[in-house]
Amino acid sequence: METSKEKTITSPGPYIVRLLNSSLNGCEFPLLTGRTLFVVGQSDALTASGQLPDIPADSFFIPLDHGGINFEIQVDTDATEIILHELKEGNSESRPVQLNTPIQVGELLILIRPESEPWTPEQPETLETSEKKIEPRFKNGIVAALAGFFILGIGTVGTLWILNSPQRQAAELDSLLGQEKERFQVLPGRDKMLYVSAQNERDTLWARQVLARGDYDKNARVINENEENKRISTWLDTYYPQLAYYRLHFDEPRKPVFWLSRQRNNMSKKEIEVLSQKLRALMPYADSVDITLMDDVAAAGQAEAGLKQQALPYSRRNHKGGVTFVIQGALDDVEILRARQFVDSYYRTWGGRYVQFAIELKDDWLKGRSFQYGAEGYIKMSPGHWYFPSPL
């Protein structure tokens, strides 16, 4: 595969794709950052089984009677380059895209423009050339009329598909989030819902308020890593009560990673695959759920190393099924804050099922009573009562 690295884009995104022929001639729809798949072909072949095939959520179907070639459009995250990949049988060809310039993919003509700029109609000779290629198929009036009705029907189905596609709905939701959309991921789900993945509780609350105030009439749900971990843990406690696991990670919400204990599980490879599929079914927005075996010794070792690095006094208590680190002593406010920040950070990585932390505070009975003068130190316990910790 050859991919041009030439930078061809000078206008800011997002971008709009316009169809210049086919039964959807004139239709426009948005291009989101990343990969967008276009399935081009005959509608009757696509629906021969009586139902729409299971194609990726970030896809569009364009009905075309002849000369259809599937292709992908890749938009960089910084919106500085757009690459078109023709997915021909047996090989793939890639080329950079010029804005407001007709692009031919097989028999399909498209045009890409920035959303903020008007459409620049293509040159008449370009359209004329394209029309001449199609003209011979419609010489006979009766055949042309029948084909017209047939294409009109396909066009209606295709248009409804595009207008109600998950990507179109995701673009609407993306627009509703406005300038704050970079803090979220909009994920089309297999259950026809849209999921907005937030990074923390504050963003979760903000997104839910936006949906409530924005009169968004589609099914949408805001999720975050902590809430999903609680939901999945409740299910696991019911159906896998003996399962020794750490937590679910959402660094990439479309591909969550589930951490299992290596030492405390004896699941076969087949059983792990079944668990992965069940977890995927619980998360309609996930394409897959990877299960990773983690070492208990590493989990406890990272906790102990962190406590030492923070210079926090602690004791370790090993027990069946886990380890407890007790942070104890007369800690001041700074030490307590440091301990809580470390514990929160650890739980975000490993969860709290195997390694747990407890804080036992002890009052400093000498606090506020110590005085130092010269080389002698003493504590005033009460009027007329003095305590000298070192011998006179």
The whole-number mean of residue pLDDT values reads 77
* Cα separation of the termini: 87 Å
Count of helix runs: 9
The proportion of residues forming helix, as a percent range, comes to 25-40%
Shape: elongated
Describe the structure.
Helix 8 (296-309) packs antiparallel against helix 9 (333-350). The chain has helices at 43-46, 124-134, 141-163, 166-177, 201-213, 225-239, 269-282, 296-309, 333-350, and strands spanning 15-19, 28-31, 34-41, 59-63, 71-75, 82-86, 93-96, 103-105, 108-114, 185-188, 194-198, 220-224, 245-249, 257-261, 290-294, 314-319, 322-329, 355-361, 370-373, 376-382, 385-387. The strands form 6 sheets. It has a 5-stranded mixed sheet with strand order 4-3-5-6-7. The protein is α+β, with helices and mostly antiparallel strands. The chain crosses the membrane at residues 142-163. One of its GO terms (cellular component) is membrane. This is Type III secretion system inner membrane ring protein PrgH. It holds the Pfam family PrgH.
